[in-house]
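Example record

The entry below shows one chain as it appears in the dataset: sequence first, then structure tokens.
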Amino acid sequence: MSELSVEQRILIAMRKTLGAIIKDVTPPAGMRHPFSEATMEDVRQCLALIAAREKELADAQGRGGERPYYSDEPQKAQVVPIAAIGKGGRREPE
């Protein structure tokens, strides 16, 4: 993986900071949020812009398409043990 550019590090820091602010000010269920609707929409827009720019940079570096996944989610690539590789592609049971 290539070294992150200054812009990428800034975007990561901004995303993490906004996420931490959101987490810190989110009230318990049933309580009124301290931010106005306009402020919450502005934060959403900032996060969307950050995500879009991060995607542009990843695509430019050939890293596009990276997505998080659950550990129990089936993967496209399958691990094949070296011992299973041989003539005919089959290994006799031991």
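Notes for this example: Residues 37-60 form the longest helix (24 residues). The chain is about 45% helix and 0% strand.
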